[in-house]
Sequence to fold (282 residues):
Amino acid sequence: KGNIMRKITLLTTIMTSLISLNINAKNKNIVYADKVEKIELFDKFSYPARVVSKINSTLLSESQGIIGKLNIKLGSVVKKGQVLVSVRHTDPAYNFREVQLKAPVSGIISNIVVTEGTLVAKRNKVLTITDPNRLRILVEIPASDLKYIKTNITGSLRMNYLDKEVDVVVSGVSPVLDPGTGTASAILHIKNTVDIAHVKIGTIGKAEFKSNQRFGFSVAEHSVVYEGRTPHLRIVEENKLKRIPVTLGKKRSGNVEILSGLKGGESVIKRVNGYIADGAEV
Fold:
């Protein structure tokens, strides 16, 4: 009986304490805040990127005639000067020697547009040779970004079929803008040769760059409140709400850079449970 009475007393004490805490909490202004410190900030630039081969040579017929023997097949590795196709003249009155078409470059046969017996005219396309080990990435840079995207800047290439980013370097940027798009062409190359085998010619990805790296403050955009046109942040100082004027910088991904007004270490309020006056206890 004594144990039961002690348990009842203990439960009564706990319930009384919880009720008291709940009443006190309801009488206080509750805020949610994060302590801010300087972090590394940067401007991020993203562009569609197209992967092409540096070597993409088209072999043309040197004379009119019929395709004779094809000495290659799709995907064959060929060397510069290797005989690939023969073309014989169609006029039976003449016994012309077959014209042999040779590989102008080394690489891999990526396209064949004829078969044995195809009639071709002079300068008709016969096949294409590509080198998958010598790649370049093409992007278009808006005029407003050209002051940030320079030759030799390093970035990353994202492809939906790769589970990691590939480091790329800007090889060159055209000084001329396309009047139709307002962009300048830029060529990138893959930084690490081991990554080349994983990137496929003809695919589209996204090239990303970081520029204008610096240290500063960044807060959630919804943390900013306005008095007239002046932006303010609400901070907790000695358990009281205080509004401080700030200067805003660039907005990106839901955050905004604070150029002035913060020193570091302040608890910036990001959410409140209602209107709270300046100086109110929180």
User: Anything to note?
Assistant: Helices lie at 2-26. Residues 2-26 form the longest helix (25 residues). Residues 89 and 96 are 6 Å apart (CA to CA).
